[in-house]
Amino acid sequence: MPLPKVATPEFEIKLHSQDEPIKYRPFLMKEEKLLLMALESKKEDTMINAVKTILSGCTLPGQKVDFDSLPLFDLEFWFLHLRAKSVGEVVKLLFKCDECEEQTEVDINIDDVELFISEEHTSLIEITDDIKVEMKYPNIKQFSKFTNKTKLTESLFEMTRECIKTIYHNDEVFEAKVQTKKELDEFILSLRQEQFGKIINFFETMPKLNHTVLFDCNKCNKENIVIIQGIENFFLSS
Hints:
Oligomer: single chain
Order of helices and strands: EEHHHEEEEEHHEEHHEE
């Protein structure tokens, strides 16, 4: 006689980059074990890859999700809500006091965490009056590749090249995916500092997990304000 199967509830979430809601289930003990192992590593890229694996396993059949192309902020937002449905809405974190450096435990309600989108953010960047560049968000593969690089300038140029989607010149349209690496590099290197700065602003203002925490220190009672961003900060104590 086969063992009984435990029924699991179903949920759905609407991501910023997706047109249709995605249906998923809570994670089970096999996913919980993977998450704990990733947390023990304290490595951001290990945690992000574990998040991708867990989300993939919890996505219900028939959902059209390309995890390799999902922006990192959507993966993080989805995983936080998956964690809330699986374990509970409250995460306990430790924060240091600015004054005395005493650590205080604070309860964070995941339902209060939002995806912050700057009003000045745009993916269509005007380089000149007749040249515009349409950008796309870096995905998890690009994030892992570039965060492992030690040369910041090199990483910045490579990220820019890989995140250019389309270049418009008057009525001409140039899809980046059919251009060579050399052609894209030459285009980027031809930009003035001010023009390249507009592209960097795209990365600096793109959506991100953002939550402001107010707490009073247990030792000196000083009121502290902490802004936490990125999924690792919602699981690792500061």
